[in-house]
Amino acid sequence: MDHDKGLGKDVETLKEDISKLREDFAGIAQSLLERGKAETESAKERFSESFSDEFQAAREKGKEKVESLEDQIREKPLMSLLIAFVIGLFLGKLLDRR
Predict the structure, then answer these.
(1) At what angle do helices 77-96 and 2-75 cross, to 10 degrees?
(2) Which contacts qualify for 20-28: CB closer than 8 Å, 24 or more apart?
(3) What is the pLDDT of residues 53-82, one digit of tens each?
(4) Are the C-beta atoms of residues 80 and 73 closer than 8 Å to each other?
């Protein structure tokens, strides 16, 4: 009988330990989930800032190129017209072959 009481007590202790382990694992899982969310949000913000900066730089460079081209057209309008005409003929021939 004494043996049964000791065994019953051991079973109860094991049940309590398993319950505590479940709680610990749940806490660890929650902590990892929260950390993962925070890391993801941080990476998303860094990517967004980087993309925005790169997009702005490309936009500025494109604007500079357009302004440069406009200046060249103003300086030499006839030459620009001739070049555009030749390019148009070339593209027309190229697309006509298809």
Answers:
(1) 120
(2) none
(3) 899 999 999 999 999 989 998 999 999 899
(4) yes
Domain boundaries, the chain: 2-96
Residues shown for the chain: 98
CA distance 58 to 34: 36
Pairwise CA distance, residues 50 & 46, whole Å: 6
Percent composition of the chain: helix, strand, coil (DSSP 3-state, to 5): 95, 0, 5
Place of tokens 């460079």: 61
The rounded distance, in Å, linking the Cα atoms of 24 and 3 is 31
